[in-house]
C-alpha cells in the first residue's frame, strides 16, 4: 500500500520546489498545457484538477475561463494555490482529499467535463490504488462523449537516467532493489514509475475509456536536456516546443521522456450510456 502520509509530508515539506518545478521544466508544462487544451471542451467547462498541487494548471485554466476545482493531498500546496488565486481574483474551488476517495469533497456523480489526474498516479504504488483513483475520476466525470480524462505518469526509464546522472554506482550496489523497481515500478511505498505499455494497459482495462493520445512531455529532451533551453528567448524556445510536440508521441519520444501524458475520452452510446469497447478499438 502507498504511504499516503509519507507522500503528503513530502509535498508539504518541498512546497517551493513544487511551485518552481514547472519553471525548471518549461517544456513539460507547455507540452502538457497545449495537449490538454487541444482536447478540452471550451470554457466555461467544469474541470477537476486532482493532484494539482500549487495550481499551475488550475490557475492557467481559470484565467482562460474554465470553472476549476483543485484537489490535492497537501494542505500546504493548497494554501499556496489559494493565495495565488486570490491575488489574481480567480475563483477556484479548493479541497483536500486523497484521489482514491473523493466522496467527502465531490459526493455527487457526473459533475465535471474534464478531470486532470496529473500527479497521483506517480505515487500510488498498487495497481488497485491506481485503478481506484481512475474509477473516482470516472465517477465524477459527466457521462458525455466529450468528457475527458487526462492522466500523467513518471517514466520508469527516467528514474534510471536520474541515478545514472547523480549516483551511477547505485545500480550495481543495490541491484536487487533496482531489479524489483524494474519489475513493479515501485520506489519504496512512495512512488510509482510506469512504462508506456503499463499506461496503455491501465487505460484499456477501463472499457468505457478510449485512449486518444499518449505522449512524452519532454520527448527526446528528457533526462534534463530540456533544462538547456529554459533561458532561450520566447521564439527560440517555441521552436523546440514545436519539435517536441511533433515528435513526443513517437516511440522514441515516449522512450526518452521523463513524464508521460495520456488523454482519454469517455465512450458513450447514442442513448447516453457508457459503452463497452473491445480492446482493439483503442
Ligand atoms: C509532482 S506533483 C504534480 C503537480 C501538478 N499536477 C503538475 O502536474 O505539475 C504531484 C501532486 O500530486 C499530489 N498527490 C500525490 N498523491 C496524491 C493522492 N493520492 N491524492 C491527491 N493528491 C495526490 C501531491 O500532493 C502533489 O501535489
Automatic annotation (TrEMBL):
Gene Ontology MF terms in the entry: methyltransferase activity
Domain Methyltransferase, chain residue ranges per copy: 47-143
InterPro entries per UniProt: Methyltransf_25, SAM-dependent_MTases_sf
SUPFAM superfamilies associated with the record: S-adenosyl-L-methionine-dependent methyltransferases
Keyword Kinase on entry: no
Keywords for the protein's UniProt record, in alphabetical order: Methyltransferase, S-adenosyl-L-methionine, Transferase
Keyword hit for Metal-binding: no
Domain of life: Eukaryota
Pfam families assigned to the protein according to its UniProt record, in alphabetical order: Methyltransf_25
GO biological process annotation, one example: methylation
UniProt xrefs under PANTHER family: METHYLTRANSFERASE (PTHR43464), UBIQUINONE BIOSYNTHESIS O-METHYLTRANSFERASE, MITOCHONDRIAL (PTHR43464:SF19)
Protein name: Methyltransferase domain-containing protein
Organism: Umbelopsis ramanniana AG
